[in-house]
Specification:
Layout lengths: L1 H13 L8 E3 L6 H7 L4 H8 L12 E3 H14 L5 H8 L7 H7 L4 H15 L3 E7 L5 E7 L8 H19 L7 E3 L9 H7 L3 E2 L5 E5 L13 H15 L8 H12 L7 H8 L3 H10 L4 H17 L6 H7 L5 H12 L3 H10 L1
Parallel strand pairs: 5-6
Antiparallel strand pairs: 1-2, 3-4, 4-7, 5-7
Helix pairs in contact: 3-4, 5-8, 6-7, 6-10, 7-10, 11-14, 15-16
Amino acid sequence: MGDIWSAINQANDAAPKADGKPIVLAAAATGIVDQIHSSQGDVDQIFGNAGIAPAMAGSPTLKLQLASFCRLFEEASRQTDNDNFGLWFGNQFQPRDLGLWGYAAVSSPTVGSALENLVNLFCYHQESSVLSLNKDCSGLVRLEYQITAPEIVERRQDAELSLGMFLNVLREGLSGSWAPEEVHFEHPKPVDWHAHEAAFDAPVYFSQPTNALLFKPDVLDRPMPGCDLTLMTMMQTCLERLGGEADRPYSLIDQVRSLIRTKLPDGYPNLDQIAAGLQLSSSTIQRELAHEGIAYKDLVELTRRDLAFAYLKQRQLPLSEIAFLLGYSELSAFSRAMRRWTGESPRAVRARMIEA
């Protein structure tokens, strides 16, 4: 154990500081250099645009800024012209390549305890994100994942690779042919959505509140073939030591923006809805936002604008659906908003972004 602590301490000293921004362990990027090469991509250009050194990818103890990690996969998708880059990266990703976190899962005694380890230790692996295990009203178990940092708008590739990674943890104990009942993604339906059903061997639904794998609860008691309680305990302890402390609490403004994002497809979310979701009074939210120098309606506008630019980069997404996802009742309302933000129509903005 002493050698492990020494390695962790040395890695922490050598790793670039995240400057207070949310992080993810670099182990989650294991194998991306090879996949970029196999997709005929330019490794240096992609990593350079993401602000990450290629040598960092795959390190079990180094920490990357979460925003840079997400940008890395979005850049890889764009530069290789592979819209499903994250999907297939996650599909082939082996649980042990997740480093300490992955080993803690696969050395658990049962599938259920493996998932509990993923959930309970997640805050040490990745910050400003949520991973939870719940049972829904239909009786299915939901393994839900979502980045909650509002500033990370483009995160489709991350969502698809993450659910692929979690699927392979389940398949470690259930067989390589096991499939969930349903798969949910928060982002809109891409052009080649049939590939997602092939990758997960299950019905896939898009524009959902969260990213999730849904499956029957009877699998939770199945044994994990690599059960090793000593190794599991060691990995848990090492990961907690590496993480130092659990995730930072979100500011109220971040919580409000995250909830606005999830409610926009149902229309403009009024303040009372957001207050109810956060179990706070509307006046408390207004007072805190005023202290930050922003009004609630301006926060909705900011969230809509950031999402609009992210959606417009998805050239296959119809403008009418973008309007719906942003909570506008009709395309003309979205067009007026875009002209207010940029002086151009959505179509013109999309053409300029795609050309760039």
